[in-house]
Amino acid sequence: MSDMDVQIKQNVLAVMRLGRDREEAMGFFRVALGLYYLAGLMTDQAIDFKALDKVFNRFIYQTVGKGHSITSILQWMSGAKVLPVIESERFLNAFKTHCPEVSPDLIPFLMAMNLGVAKNISKLEVDGPVAEWIERQKQH
Q1: Of 82, 74, 83, which Cα lies nearest the Cα of 114?
Q2: Which one of 18, 91, 93, 95 has the lowest number of neighbouring Cβ atoms within 10 Å?
Q3: What is the domain count for the chain?
């Protein structure tokens, strides 16, 4: 899954198209793609991050244009603006339908993994709305 094949692109675009407006579609795109990226990191194989990011960044540029990268998407996913997407039944249903390679049950784990990476990069404590959301998911 760490490779960006045609099926993954089609899956992410299918989820994106279900957004009601440009802002929601962009949120759906960011989260679906970010979750694929993060799920692809769960491997025993060595990862060439430079090559991986290049493939993801090319797809992002081709889809939404300049100003976005896999890094900016993962940063966005560590902030409060991600909550309306990951709490959206419409997103969760679309993701479950169109992205079967990544179980929706993994979303809290992948979001926590993303926060952990953000913490390692920034050296700051990661708390706030996303961390609170992850904790609430553990209680379900």
Answers
A1: 74
A2: 93
A3: 1
